[in-house]
Amino acid sequence: MKKEIEQYLAVPGDKFSLKNYKTSYSGKQEKEDGEKELEDLKRRLSVFQETMYAADSNALLIIFQAMDAAGKDSAIEHVMSGINPQGCEVHSFKTPNSLEYAHDFLWRHYLALPEKGKIGVHNRSHYENVLVCKVHPEYILAENMPGIDEVKDIDKKFWEKRYESIRNFEAHLSANGTTIIKFFLHVSKEEQKQRFLDRINDPKKNWKFSEGDLIERKRWDDYMEAYEVAIQETSTKDAPWYVIPADQKWHARLAISKIIEAAFEKLDLRFPELADDELERLDDIKQRLVKD
Fold this sequence. Notes:
By secondary structure, the protein is of the alpha/beta class. The chain has twelve helices and six strands.
């Protein structure tokens, strides 16, 4: 299992290049077998989540980033479908509103963090600030930051500080009991095109397509460069990035589930154990209930 998971890991400190990671699964497992394995994994994840909820000492933050149509929504839907809704919260981040722009770029993400005992899933995240904003630096101007009056003020040093802020933010969360897993769903440009066409051809999926998706698609190379730098700068031991081949959705969901399960296993959580006097008190209550 460890070796299988490590193939997706962006090793902290190593030179990172997306060219070293596949977008398509080429192994021997068939889709039907993979989907059966996923169902088993979902049951195990449910038990892990229940244990974490009861232990109430740790939290799990799962971050999803990807190009449009890479399968973030469906991955979250399928992987987390066996989790008790009381123990999991999903947040999808869109363009900041005026209140959010009035704070630093991490503020709204801090508000959405999972409390101890819970899983938090961020569909897009604070990384939009070094991805979309890196491709469209004019968006930074809306933050009204001191010394940033025009696009030319957003230089290399600015981005270095932003990566540093992200690393510090995640290190702080990790030190205080939040396990962080970050997934980049690595879809090919060809597969994205097919999924866009599928959305256009299917009346039930028309609402998912926006003409703006085509505009961003033209900046594909710019986005790939932004992802490479962001992952290089922020994949750490405490908050690693995993690059998941996303051309086959069933395999992406399976790989994501295995990585989440491994993170739970590493936590080695246990259900709370009562002290002897509390056990005796429960036994007394049990006897009274039996006689009632």
